[in-house]
Specification:
mainly alpha, Serine Threonine Protein Phosphatase 5, Tetratricopeptide repeat
Length: 138
């Protein structure tokens, strides 16, 4: 979303909010709705608004799971970051396990600040170790 790349997060969020409102009227539960929810959640994550991000990403994840969308792994990693920052390490690790199982490793093996609360957990380091050797698989 162009305004976000320019650092205009409020404007980008407002535009996505309008799209989401239209989706909820015309396309609730459809893949296009998830397409608008995911970046809205991502904007909120970038602004460290974890609870609000979770509220946007969870319905997108539900849709992605139902239709086996190619963005399923990305939504799982985003939601894992929000869960980690909200202090729910177990849920975050479960989501990351699911993301890897779905074939998504982007954003897990790197130094993502959103996953930093998990870095010392043995289950997380076991999950990340093979990814580091693969060059953070993509």
């Amino acid at each position: 979303m162009a305004p976000a790349t320019l650092g205009r997060f409020e404007e980008a969020g407002a535009l996505l909010g309008e799209l989401i409102a239209l989706d909820e009227e015309a396309l609730p539960g459809r893949p296009k709705h998830a397409t608008h929810l995911r970046p809205s959640g991502e904007l909120l994550i970038e602004r460290e608004r974890w609870r609000e991000a979770r509220v946007k990403i969870e319905p997108a994840l539900s849709i992605d799971r139902r239709v086996q969308d190619a963005n399923l792994g990305s939504a799982l990693v985003q939601l894992a970051g929000a869960a980690a920052r909200l202090g729910n390490a177990e849920r975050a690790r479960d989501l990351l396990d699911e993301a890897v199982f779905a074939g998504c490793t982007r954003g897990i093996g790197d130094e993502s600040p959103h996953l930093s609360p998990l870095r010392e957990h043995p289950r997380f380091t076991a999950l990340v170790a093979p990814l580091v050797h693969q060059g953070d698989g993509r």
